[in-house]
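Researcher: Next sequence.
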Amino acid sequence: MSEETKYMAAAFKNEQAARWCPGCGDHAILNTLHKAMAEVGVAPKDTAVISGIGCSSRLPYYMNTYGMHTIHGRAAAIATGLKTARPDLTVWQISGDGDGLAIGGNHFIHALRRNIDINILLFNNKIYGLTKGQYSPTSNRGFVSKSSPYGTTEDPFIPAELVFGCRGTFFARGFDVSLDTSKEIMVAAAKHKGTSVVEILQNCVIFNQGIYGHLTDKEKRPDHVIHLAQGEKMLFGKDKQKGLVQDGFTLKAVTVGEDGYTIDDVLVHDAHCQDETLQRQLALMDGESLPLAIGIIRDVEAPTYEESVERQVEDVKAKKGFSSLRDMILKTQETWTV
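Model: Next structure:
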């Protein structure tokens, strides 16, 4: 963005009224995305928003950008193709936990493996909302729903675990109700070169009301959530009196000043460390014995897919003398008469 060009959130909104249930977390996420895009400063005409199927996937309808409402689970495939063909565009993918991790799970992991430069917003409400309340790939074991009336007998995916398992280069997490944190991580995701995954823990007021209540409640939150910030001590609690320390090969929550622990023992967050060991441990904390981590957990550099493809094409064209597909076919003599 040039110094002369500045955008307001309104530049990314259109006149469509958002059709989500009153109180749905999607409303807050949409408004935060408008603000984040304005701060990033990429023009609406240079931005594309791709979605699959689900409540979250309505979002492109409410954007004053290019948008595609595609088919179930295929948002990552479409986003990958678009970014490869038009690397000049900023591409956002909007997916729910069902769309992105069930039918779309294969595309999700390969987008991460390739490190295509797209920004994936993963709305995780631990249920299928659009199809009226079936359990999803992130629903907890024992969860009672319309499709598991006696409790699901499956263990859930942990999105962070998938990201790290695919050697992802960017992972961040926030809540739908934490507007400032959500904006912070969306802006960072847009600036990251490579596949950015932003998991947004989102409430479904109709079919999974209060699923994150134990983490978002104002009284409980300070002791169950830690906001990680680059280069800062990992402190949490109402008065920041608690911290995370290394305990052998694992993490431990302690109270500073008790049991011999001092502020010097508390770990410092480094999202840019290439070694993912500590970042993975932080991402897998669940808010029970250890606080749930929000903020930017991993943000490292690596070659991107579309840049590598473009460079390879230019190298081959230069070495082989190709200027077009027809030229390549004629020069290689790989033709047959049928």
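Model: The CA atoms of residues 76 and 289 lie 34 Å apart. DSSP finds eleven helices and eleven strands in the chain.
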